[in-house]
Amino acid sequence: MTTDSDARRLAIEVISTLVNIKRTAADLILRKAAVPEPLIKRFLSERDPATGTKRSKRDAAAMILEEVAKTGQENEVVGNLIAVASEFSAFHLSQDEFVARGVQQKAATYRGILEENEAKARAAAAADLEAAQRDRQKEQREMVERQSKLLLAQFDELARSDNPQHRGYMLEDLLNRAFDLHGITVHKSFRRNDGGEQIDAAFEFDGWHYLVECRWREQLADIRQLDGLSGQVTRSGRQTMGVFLSINGWSPNVIQLLKQNPEKTIFLMEGYDLRAVLEQRIDMRRLLKGKIAALNLEAEPYRSVLTMI
To answer: In this predicted model, what pLDDT tens digit does every residue of 17-72 receive, in sequence order?
Structure first.
């Protein structure tokens, strides 16, 4: 609430007219309005330096507003005074009941206006916040769209490459960038166990860690290539799983052999899955959740993206 001159004048009227006796006014008006206690003591005891007599309620009320303005509390105190006055009913304590009733009615009207204005301000602020969120979401979507198109172009270029080693290395980079684009924390290639073990890539998702093995070769992947990833997962912490990405797929016996493994810690991705993400037909997070659910709930190490779109 912005304190204007009308609100200040009304606050002074509240203090000076609703309750005739100062001490009672302090209890029923000032303390209920959360006026600081040192100012209440001054209200009760301070004298006019010119006459030596105690300040009138009106002068003391003006003093209170001057002091709270210095400390940045004026808006709060004035608003509280008007709120207290709007509910006031002990008119027998007033010197002039007719005047006091007029102040109470004015406070009630003013409070209603303030509350309506504040409600409008909150609604406008909420609308501005919602609009800003929509703008940020739009910018995010546009950024994801731009970057996805670039990654898709890189993917298609790699598909035309005749250098398998370079293609595999660039596939790791492309996958890491795709994870990062969809807000998934990525750990790039690293070595562990005193340099004796190379991890191609890893990422964090929903509180779990995933080790990634990437393959882009003409021949289909077989179970021997997955055994290496399985060993890496086994040597990791208990909240670790494996993702085997083979762009050209795997031999027919791979899925059945994975099902025979009681650990069920590895799920499969192929080139079509990754391409669907880059073409923005599915979000990477949704794809991962679908594959993880298939493994954990149905013991299926591979679920095609076609079942999730």
So the answer is: 999 999 999 999 999 999 999 999 999 998 888 788 888 999 999 999 999 999 99
Strand order in the sheet with 208-215: 186-187, 201-205, 208-215, 240-246, 266-270
**DSSP alpha helix (H) spans, 160-222:** 164-181
pTM of the model: 0.65
End-to-end CA distance of the chain: 51
- Angle (CA) 276 279 218, round 5°: 55
Are 181 and 151 in contact by the 8 Å Cβ rule? The answer is yes
C-alpha span between 190 and 208 (Å, rounded): 18
Residue 252, C-beta contacts closer than 8 angstroms, at least 6 positions apart: none
Cβ neighbour number for residue 249 with a 10 Å cutoff: 15
Q: What is the pLDDT of residues 111-144, one digit of tens each?
A: 998 889 889 999 999 999 999 999 999 999 999 9
CATH topology of domain 161-307: Trna Endonuclease; Chain: A, domain 1 (3.40.1350)
Domain range summary for the chain, segments of one domain joined by +: 5-121, 161-307
